[in-house]
Amino acid sequence: DAGVIQSPRHEVTEMGQEVTLRCKPISGHNSLFWYRQTMMRGLELLIYFNNNVPIDDSGMPEDRFSAKMPNASFSTLKIQPSEPRDSAVYFCASRDSSYNSPLHFGNGTRLTVT
Amino acid sequence: GIQVEQSPPDLILQEGANSTLRCNFSDSVNNLQWFHQNPWGQLINLFYIPSGTKQNGRLSATTVATERYSLLYISSSQTTDSGVYFCARQTGANNLFFGTGTRLTVIP
Prior knowledge:
heterodimer; A: 114 residues; mainly beta; seven-stranded mixed sheet; four-stranded antiparallel sheet; 0% helix; 54% strand; B: 108 residues; five-stranded antiparallel sheet
């Protein structure tokens, strides 16, 4: 299995621009998570989906952030408009929630907003 | 709120030494995982261990759920073990809460 695939690996953008991060979960996994990692706050859960349905988005920092999962093999996290404080590493992870199974992470997208 | 505390926050070892990392959690656990974040930022799943003991090569982990802690043992450490070790516990709602990590540096 190729694992969780995220793109792009790095993104540098100017303040005010729209940013879209992409994730392909492991085939057969029905839960997908978006995490953000910063030095100050560590790893924070932004949102997670079960069977393509958003279950908990309480970690999404504000309305500028949105996430979608149109099908079982693809999810996006969008920031519009982006701000310098959004600079972080964004991780996508997936697992099979039908029984207790480990969470598997993608390699992350390092976002820099200037 | 849900607490996941890790100790020590930083650890420096000579290559070949052994170490024990600790994770304390404040509530009952459905799932506990240990991850290694390598210097390139990748988060690697080490153990899924809600209870009991597991071993994988030079690494082993023990979770005592009734006493709300888990331990990660690293034996004969190597420079490639350097990085940050996270434990994360799952609530009943499928969410994983991460500790603040232990930063390990192994010196040749």
